[in-house]
Structure formats: structure tokens, C-alpha cells
Amino acid sequence: MTAAAEPQGSAAARGRLIVLDTNVWLDIHYFRDPQAQSLAVALESPRWAAARCEQTDAELTLVLKRPPFCSGPAQRSRLVECLQSWQVRALLFSLGDQAPCRCRDPHDQKFLDLAHAARASLLLTKDKALLALKASALRHGLMIVTPRQFADQLLLPDERLEPGERPVPLVPDPIQGAPGLDQAPRLQRP
């Protein structure tokens, strides 16, 4: 699907289209961060849809090839399955014009450009360089928020998870029982 094509389904009626940065995707699918689980549930509903592009897919694929993400064949297989499920569900857009907001970190610009191409209303991130653009992005119709802000401010009460409630994952948990899950470390650029 290209940016010029109208996505199928009313969830992507542009007002409910979300861009996730790589770390938020990892928080949902790898780290199972409790702060991101309401977002995971929301993305399973018809009310919200996610956007992706070749550039964001390439970054995610590259990151998932790094240790500790692929520490064994079983874990690698589950992560590939998770990525493929994501690619089926998220709407694919082609990047066109650059977004009017410029990120000081060129590695993060692709998320702004995707939001612009898809005319998404939300960009979910914990990245400080992207969060610093909140005010200027809002002038262009894009809200930049953290997963917690999304859950607290934008979800309807019936869309929120209760404390301790966990959604049923689409694919088996790739790191079930792995130590350090509650810390959700940030992705470091090489």
C-alpha cells in the first residue's frame, strides 16, 4: 500500500492511525512492558491502526538480528513470527515528502516522515529527540506521546487494561521467563 492509496478499514480513518518507533514496538512485543500493554490491546481493536514503511521495517529487522534479541533459534523464530504478524496488521505506506518537523537525530526522522506520509494523528515514542518536537508537531496535526500518555489520555475507559492485567499475545512470548524484563532497556544506536 502506498501513501497515495487509501488504507482499508475504518480504523485508519486517519484520526486513529498510529506510528510506533522501534523501541515502542520492542516494548510491546519483546519486553512486554506493562506501560505499553494497553497500546498492544488498542492495536488489536478496530478503532486503532498502525502505520509502517520500508524504512521502519528495515530498522526493526536490523535490531532484531542483534544480541540479545536472537540468542537462540527458538527465540529467533518467535520474533520473526511476531514481526510477520505485525507486518500483516500494520498498514504499509511509502515515504514521500519529508515531514515539516525535523528531528535532531537523523535516525529518528523516518518516524516523522512516516507519520506525515500516512497522515497519522499519533507518534508513540519514549525517545527524547522526538518528544522534544511535541509542540511543533502538534501545529501540523501530529501528537507525539509516550505509551503511558496514550493509555492515560487517549484510550477510552473500556480500552484500558486494569493494573496487572495482561493481554493474550498473538504469538508465544519470545522471552518468557527471561531475566530483566521489568527494566525494558532502551535501544542503543551503534
Describe the model.
The protein is built from eight helices and five strands. The protein has 190 residues and is α/β, with parallel strands linked by helices. It has a single domain (12-164), classed as Rossmann fold. The protein has a five-stranded parallel sheet, sandwiched between helices. Helix 3 packs antiparallel against helix 4 (73-89). The chain is globular, with a radius of gyration of 16 Å. The chain starts with 16 loop residues before the first strand and ends in a 36-residue tail after the last helix. Residues 1-14 and 168-190 have low confidence and may be disordered.
Gyration radius (Cα, Å) is: 16 Å
- The secondary structure category is alpha/beta
Overall pLDDT level? 80
Regions with little confidence, pLDDT below 50 for 5+ residues:
1-14, 168-190
Number of extended strands: 5
3D shape = globular
Q: What CATH architecture label applies?
A: 3-Layer(aba) Sandwich
Terminal-residue CA separation: 31 Å
Name given to the CATH homologous superfamily: 5'-nuclease
What's the topology here?
Elements: E1 17-20, H1 22-29, H2 37-44, E2 49-52, H3 54-64, H4 73-89, E3 91-92, H5 109-118, E4 122-124, H6 128-131, H7 134-138, E5 143-145, H8 147-154
Parallel strand pairs: 1-2, 1-4, 2-3, 4-5
In short:
The protein is an alpha/beta fold. It contains 8 helices and 5 strands. The protein has a single domain, classed as 5'-nuclease (Rossmann fold), CATH 3.40.50.
